[in-house]
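Box S1 | Example of a co-folding query
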Amino acid sequence: MDLSLRLWLIALCTLLFFSTTTIAADMSVSAINDRTKPVGNVHLEGTAPAVVVTTTPAQTGQAVYDQYCASCHNSGLMGAPKKGNADDWATRVSQGDAILAKHAIEGFNAMPAKGTCMDCSDDEIIAAINYMIKPN
Ligand code: HEC
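Box S1 (continued) | Returned holo structure for heme C
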């Protein structure tokens, strides 16, 4: 085999090797976009980058109560203080708002944490408490 033919074969093998690795590369749209995106992002001083904040609107105390708390607190299930019943709430309210909120948020005996509304914010739970302690 003469030298030029051997070099030609090496070149061909190299070419084949690289072409297959290119084919094997991630061809997904996001990967391609990633590879072809412009280098560096221009950010002009003084212009704040747009931040999209997604917050779910707070639910009212009544809405939270109706959906999550009513099942126990309407009837007094398992000794739950009944909604709007001043006698049931008197001693509990006298503990102070902070304790009341803590017990509702973290759970207390048969009272489940957040009344099982794990997506509820602390404020929504507190709104529900305010709704249920209001005398009927
Ligand atoms: C599975 C039944 C159940 C559900 C649902 C439930 N509770 Fe209760 N809750 C109880 C029981 C039982 C108690 C009384 C616990 C005790 O005093 O031992 C209680 C007590 C409370 C108290 C008084 C805590 C204290 O310190 O005396 C608050 C406040 C309260 N619940 C708020 C809520 C809120 C707000 C919700 C809905 C988001 C809710 N509960 C849902 C059963 C429930």
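Residues 61-133 form a domain with the Cytochrome Bc1 Complex; Chain D, domain 2 fold (CATH 1.10.760.10). Helices lie at 3-24, 29-36, 61-73, 86-93, 97-106, 122-133.
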